[in-house]
Amino acid sequence: MGANDHNAKLCLLCMEEHELEEIHNVEETTFKGETIHYIAAKEYCKNADEYIISEEQIKANDLRMKNAYRQKVGLLTSNEILDIRNQYDASQKDFARILGLGELTVTRYENHQIQDKAYDNVLREVRDNPMFFHQLLLEKKQELSKRSFHKIMKQTSQIMAKSGNQYLIQSIFAQYEGYGNGNFHGNVPLNLNKIIDMINYFGSKIENLYVVKLMKLLWYSDFLYYRENKVGITGLCYFKASMGALPKAYDKIILLEGIFREDEIFDDRIAVRFLGSDLPKNTMLTKAEIETIDFVISLFGDLNRSEIVAMMHEEDAYLNTQDKHLINYEFSKTLHC
Ligand SMILES: [Zn+2]
For residue range 217-251, what is the model confidence (pLDDT) as tens digits? Predict the structure, then answer.
């Protein structure tokens, strides 16, 4: 009596109950005009020294053959098809409705039936472009139950936010490429985690914090910290704009996931207000960095936008840098605070 006893079954070759060994071989076959190699499973009976293929193995072998064919001709495999639907947390029935297909079609394509190229293309679009799926979902809202619609919409929104965020992160880092080890980024690599934490921290300590003031607070924090330590905090590069220092890609940075913000609509424009949140327990900001940030808050937290811009306009860093040029961190030596 072994632990594998539960694997024993009636062997149709020798008509005794015993465990059958599963054997895997590479098989070659021709399917739809293509020569396919795939792994086929069968069972071996020691008593009879013969092979047998079970019902489940016949099905699984066929699916592996179909997937080998799919891979060979550049179609999604059945697992990839299944993953795309699961990523949106949609049942076969709901997925079919959203794509405007029969439920059976969706079921079959996740199994043995080879999908046509058109369906394959639609699935790739659904996988790579959550906005596309979002649009389809909105169009088919009436055909879904309320519960299904909300569940799938929630999932789709999360995927959209994530892919949007990945795009943002990539394009921010792309804008920061090529600044080497100069004094334009404070001798540290760009750290978006620290930046997100800092923005939220400022927002939690300062009421009515908008973009212009926030950017000056970041600049003063980085430059003050650099003055003492020869390294900045964030790795941000700042260029000279009319209202003072602005980090490169600041318009993208403020959109990063994890920053608590609110869009306020005025007559002719939208202003981003930073709502803030406490520092997370696992923040990458060091104690010394947080002390510098607290110092900046104590100096500038109560100033309004014009006051802080006026301060910046007095700084050598501003006066001695050309418009739209990057500000050298060495100017930190001459800061007025
Ligand atoms: Zn047997």
Answer: 999 999 999 999 999 999 999 999 999 999 999 99
Rounded to whole angstroms, the Cα distance separating 81 from 124 reads: 9
Distance 54 CA to ligand 1 centre (A): 13
pLDDT in tens, 158-185: 888 888 888 888 889 999 987 655 689 9
Q: How far is the CA of 62 from the centre of ligand 1 (A)?
A: 24
- The neighbourhood of ligand 1, an ion, using CB within 5 A, equals 11, 13-14, 45, 47
Instruction: State which residues of the chain have pLDDT below 50.
Output: 1-3
Output the CA 256–ligand 1 centroid distance in Å: 63
Cα(60) to centroid of ligand 1, in Å? 22
58 C-alpha to center of ligand 1: Å? 19
Instruction: Give yes or no for a contact between 257 and 249, defined as CB atoms under 8 angstroms apart.
Output: no
* pTM for the structure as a whole: 0.62
Distance (angstroms) between ligand 1 centre and the Cα of 8 equals: 10
Ligand 1 centroid to 44 CA: how many Å? Answer: 8
Domain boundaries in the chain?
20-72, 81-166, 182-334
- Give the mean pLDDT of the chain: 92
